[in-house]
Write a structure and sequence with these properties.
Strand content: over 45%
Number of strands: 22
Shape: globular
Helix content: under 10%
Radius of gyration: 17 Å
Distance between the termini: 32 Å
Order of helices and strands: EEEEEEEEEEEEEEEEEEEEEE
Strand order of the largest sheet: 1-3-5-7-9-11-13-19
Structural class: mainly beta
Length: 180
């Protein structure tokens, strides 16, 4: 199912567990008490999901999602380098997710939820220096906020996001660094 150009899709009490939903150009989906396979949010798309069960939701660019009272296997956020959009993010509220991987400068809120594995990045906002053996940063913050959620396995990812940093130095290192 392809949704483009500010289109709106409302889904209620449906079984779309074998469907891939691909959203672009400010498209919006709202879903209640339904089954899905995958939803892909691109180019400023939005999703509000309440009481759903699904495999994966992926958000790229500046897309935003809200997930409430739901069960998911995976939630991913990605930077969209091709169009210069770096802030995909959302809220996961009173839900259960097996794996959350946050790879953007957007802040995702984890509220009263159970997360088995959380992979996150730090947003470096002052001075960042990366070389072969270590990383120095004078100021950073995680790209998620935990509000009464349980994350069993929490892992800092090996890429770096520098947002409005004063200075970034990369010396003899093969790591991903996003300058925003």
């Amino acid at each position: 199912i392809y949704i483009y150009g500010e289109a709106v899709l409302n889904v209620s009490n449906s079984n779309l567990s074998s469907s891939f939903i691909d959203m672009h150009d400010f498209a919006f989906i709202t879903a209640k008490e339904s089954l899905f396979y995958d939803i892909s949010l691109d180019e400023d798309s939005r999703a509000y999901l309440n009481g759903v069960s699904m495999n994966t939701i992926s958000a790229r660019g500046d897309s935003i999602f809200t997930i409430v009272n739901s069960h998911l296997y995976r939630v991913n956020t990605y930077i969209s380098t091709s169009d210069g959009k770096y802030y995909a993010a959302g809220q996961i509220i009173n839900s259960t997710v097996t794996e959350v991987s946050l790879n953007t400068a957007g802040i995702t809120y984890l509220v009263d939820s159970n997360i088995e594995t959380l992979n996150y990045n730090l947003i470096h906002n002052d001075t960042l220096s990366v070389n072969q053996t270590h990383v120095d940063s004078t100021s950073s913050y995680p790209n998620y906020v935990n509000d009464s959620s349980i994350a069993t396995n929490v892992h800092l990812q090996s890429s770096y996001i520098a947002r409005e940093a004063i200075s970034v130095t990369i010396n003899r290192s093969w790591v991903e660094v996003y300058l925003i």
